[in-house]
Design brief:
By secondary structure, the chain is α/β, with parallel strands linked by helices. The protein is built from six helices and five strands; from the N terminus they run αβαβαβαβαβα.
Length: about 180
């Protein structure tokens, strides 16, 4: 079985015969996000915003374990459920915790709400998020480039789609899919 989109570590860990998961698992992504946030200069206080469902927990649990092993306690953990379009209460809780960095385990619609509200309420902490987010799409969704200026993504590619190395592949994709947007999702 080839699992092409689902990233939960529970699918392939422990290793099972004939199950292949070529995408980064949620544990891999979670650990990389903690590493990224905690190694940025000046980062001592980390907050987390997450979905509370199984997908969110599959990121949150390894993040909390990695932070605990490093002797770091999150200054705030806020939950933003799927379908919510207003993140005011979560943003204000996180802002009051004065984080240096925010880890976001959110799907694009809810991340959009979070970024808009964070900008609206003056929360300027950098944000790192999961591989389920396209940088290009998020800039469009939020509609305010300044609100995505400090957004970092566990990116599945070694560069953004505008890089010259991707031109031939983008041109090929557009040839056969002229009405579809070119993005990483």
């Amino acid at each position: 079985f080839m699992v092409l989109g689902a990233a939960s570590s529970a699918i392939s860990s422990p290793v099972r015969p004939n199950i292949f998961q070529p995408v980064a698992t949620t544990s891999t992504v979670a650990n990389a996000m903690v590493d990224f946030a905690s190694t940025k200069p000046g980062t001592k206080r980390i907050a987390i915003i997450s979905h509370s469902d199984d997908w969110g927990k599959s990121h949150l649990d390894p993040e909390l374990a990695k932070l605990k092993a490093a002797g770091i306690e999150p200054v705030e953990i806020a939950y933003l459920e799927r379908g919510q379009v207003d993140a005011t209460s979560q943003v204000l809780r996180i802002k009051n915790a004065k984080p240096d960095f925010v880890i976001a385990n959110l799907y694009p619609p809810e991340l959009t709400a979070y970024l808009r509200d964070a900008y609206k309420f003056g929360l300027r902490a950098p944000v790192v998020t999961t591989q389920g987010v396209s940088v290009e799409d998020m800039v469009k969704r939020v509609g305010m480039p300044q609100a995505t200026k400090e957004l970092f993504v566990f990116y599945p590619l070694n560069n953004t789609l505008e890089a010259p190395a991707f031109k031939q592949w983008i041109d090929l994709y557009k040839k056969y899919n002229p009405n579809d947007p070119v993005e990483t999702l």
